[in-house]
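Title: Prediction job returns without error message
Component: structure pipeline
Severity: low
Priority: P3
Assignee: unassigned

Description:
Job completed but the reporter wants confirmation the result is attached to the right record. Sequence as submitted:
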Amino acid sequence: MKGQVKSNYQSHVRSIFKVIAYVLAPDEFGGVFQDIVDISRSKEKVIIDDRFVKVMSGIKEAYENADDAITRKEILSIVSPKITFKMIQGFLTGITSYRFTEARFHVANTGVAVFTDPPSRISQRFSFDQIEHFIDIIVSPHVCTDMPFGENRLKLSDGTILFVPNTIRNMAPSRIINQCHTFCEENVPGFSPFKSSSLSKILEICKASSRKSLQWLNYFAADGGEAFDSLTTMVENLNLSSDLTKRLCDNLKRSRQYLKSDFKTHISKCSSIADHCATCELSDIKNSDGREVCDYLHDAYCVDCEMLASTLSDIESLIKEQSDNKEVTERFLTVFHNYTDSIHNWNCHLLRSVNQDMAREYLLNSLPDDGVFIYLD
């Protein structure tokens, strides 16, 4: 019994008690009824003394030693109905509002510290038709192009060696997956393809180069913008408060706009902000020939860059807290990491583009009067 139905029943019960109190004690009707209401609404006040601290210390020890999230929820349900979230934060510093609310729901639906069996997980095996269908898509001419040189050596389990030519994918992995799902919906209504996480895993294993351009067709910006949209949708689908959802979505929107507009203007050859320093960010830490030393200490920081990093970190932490099912969490994290990789690649592409422009400007400024500059991309 929840919500409005429960409130209606409580109102009817109070009306019945009023009538009974008036019939039994008409002269003292007000006092008798108030005593009944006070008893029904009385709450035990929490007194923070040595005994309370010892009890909470035991709860903390049991909570931290629990093996899984379900056990921690059941332990937390012992005290969650009696104390506030701010009070319990003084003992369990790492606890979140989501975990505390979940424990209260457990008390309301199941009971205090009642053990519940974890939900059964059904692993659905794939079919060869699903794999063959997706392989046919990724090797089709409009998705994949064979390179005229180079090949990969593939050794099978029975010892057979296959030589596979190197290939180039003409579109990003996320776009391939979206096209696969759209194709199945429009042309094969009864066919059920893999989910996005499984298709991403197949594309990761079946490696191929991606056709990209540093200037004209900007796949990095397209993939990065699509990643921001997908992250916004992912945040909206999480079980979060409206204020937290709005804050994360606004941060993603602001970060996307920053990468599209102001970030390139902040990049320079050398800067005290590491994220804006082309020399620092583009240097190869493993190869000394591709490394250049910057004279700046990089002791400053950019508010927008830090906001993007902290927002992505917060979303990752919230995804880990949303489900007790490790398999589901891993799938969400796989998709999340694909989106963050696209954003990181967009960031790196902007750094390379600005550095390329600076090199071209340097050549043009140092070009003699009888010289010719030929630019090929």
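Comment from assignee: result matches the submitted record. Residues 227-365 form one domain.
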